[in-house]
Design a protein that fits this description.
Structural class: mainly alpha
Mean pLDDT: 87
Number of strands: 0
Largest sheet: none
CATH class of the largest domain: Mainly Alpha
Number of helices: 9
Helix content: 55-70%
Order of helices and strands: HHHHHHHHH
Strand content: under 5%
Number of domains: 2
Low-confidence stretches: 1-12
CATH topology of the largest domain: Tetracycline Repressor, domain 2
Length: 201
């Protein structure tokens, strides 16, 4: 018996959008951004191309949507980490560094889109993605300033520049792991602790 593909009618609209996003992640994980097309995506999910185009008018919008989703998750996790009053502020910061590295390595398809050249180098980010990414970075600057006020990040440094340098340091480590330059990620915890010790007073 041949396998019957589900039709658009079998999905709730929000459910279909989520399935398209999840399927895109899978395509990127398996073959990179180049492997993504709305035609292939529709076939993979088992819907018509018209259904896919209803949510994403082209590949760029699809990729920007995926990146924006990554930043949304990022923002939620930042809030969870830094609003956890069961831990001292310095421990929250260490936890953030460890979470950053883990997130980047375990969600490389999100991370590549969020910070990679496929969108930003081509200057094709949608307004929604730009706003979400900007909001996340502003939260990062605010978090940095609070850590300075709490005395464990250097107060003499400009908060914006310190946030940029911190993010750049962690991004560099993450990229080395994702790209396979550091082939053994078993020492990631030690690298996170080292980064925290260097950045914190």
């Amino acid at each position: 018996m041949s396998k019957i593909k589900p039709t658009e009618k079998s999905y709730h609209h929000d459910d279909l959008r989520g399935k398209l996003i999840d399927a895109t992640r899978g395509m990127i994980r398996e073959g990179g951004v180049e492997a993504v097309s709305l035609r292939k995506l529709a076939d993979r999910v088992g819907v018509s191309r018209t259904a896919a185009y209803h949510y994403f008018k082209d590949k760029n919008v699809l990729l920007c949507t995926l990146a924006q989703e990554g930043f949304r998750i990022w923002q939620e996790e930042l809030d969870n980490i830094f609003q956890d009053e069961t831990k001292p502020p310095a421990d929250r910061y260490r936890g953030y560094i460890r979470w950053y590295m883990t997130y980047a390595v375990e969600n490389a398809e999100y991370y590549d889109l969020m910070f990679g050249r496929a969108i930003w180098k081509q200057n094709t980010a949608t307004e929604g993605l730009k706003k979400t990414a900007y909001d996340v970075f502003q939260k990062q600057v605010t978090m940095t300033r609070q850590c300075q006020d709490q005395g464990f990040l250097p107060a003499t440094e400009d908060s914006l520049r310190l946030a940029q340098v911190t993010w750049g340091t962690l991004h560099g480590l993450a990229r080395l792991l994702i790209d396979g330059i550091y082939t053994d990620d078993s020492h990631m915890d030690e690298m996170c602790d080292c980064a925290a010790n260097l950045l914190m007073r």
